[in-house]
């Protein structure tokens, strides 16, 4: 008697379930869940906070912007909302988006001391090949902004 074979649908469902289970095993970077600045926990003693956010623009991509701090993934920033933070020890940091396309002035350098809070705006300046229906690639840039400007932009961002 031949062994019963799993249908293509059953195999696909099993693979999808395994992938979802594995996705739950990955710990996100500290502060990587979107949180309102007013509701964020205090900055830990002896640390500084880098706050990453995107100024909502309905015409740009809803893709997450992956941000590296000194070459290590620190945050995945959604297209809108209050943003995410990453706590770091005092020091100098190179902040760069993780992009497949390089553009001038994509990143920035910041120096932080204990208790500092630096707001970093992520902008999307996509490159388009052909017309909008052909191919579009996100090109993210990072720049520090004054706290008052950042908080005003975060306040009006859709949740």
Describe the protein's topology:
Elements: H1 8-23, E1 48-54, E2 65-69, E3 72-77, E4 84-88, E5 91-97, E6 108-112, E7 117-124, E8 127-129, E9 135-137, E10 140-145, H2 147-156
Parallel strand pairs: 1-7
Antiparallel strand pairs: 1-4, 2-3, 2-5, 5-6, 7-10, 8-9
Describe the structure.
This protein has 159 residues and is of the alpha+beta class. The chain is built from 2 helices and 10 strands, in the order αββββββββββα. It has a 4-stranded mixed β-sheet with strand order 4-1-7-10. It has a 4-stranded antiparallel β-sheet with strand order 3-2-5-6, with no helix packed on it. A two-stranded antiparallel ribbon has the order 8-9. The termini are far apart. The chain has a single domain, classed as Immunoglobulin-like.
- Outline: globular
Quickly name the level 1 CATH class. Mainly Beta
Calculate the terminal CA-CA distance, rounded to whole Å.
Answer: 58 Å
Quaternary structure type: single chain
Give the overall average pLDDT.
Answer: 79
Q: Which regions contain 5 or more consecutive residues with pLDDT less than 50?
A: 16-31
CATH architecture descriptor: Sandwich
Structural class: alpha+beta
Output the number of helix runs: 2
CATH topology value = Immunoglobulin-like
Largest sheet: 4 strands, mixed
- Please indicate the count of domains: 1
Helix residue percentage: 10-25%
Strand arrangement, largest sheet? 4-1-7-10
| Helix-strand topology string | HEEEEEEEEEEH
Beta-strand percent range: 25-35%
Radius of gyration: 20 Å
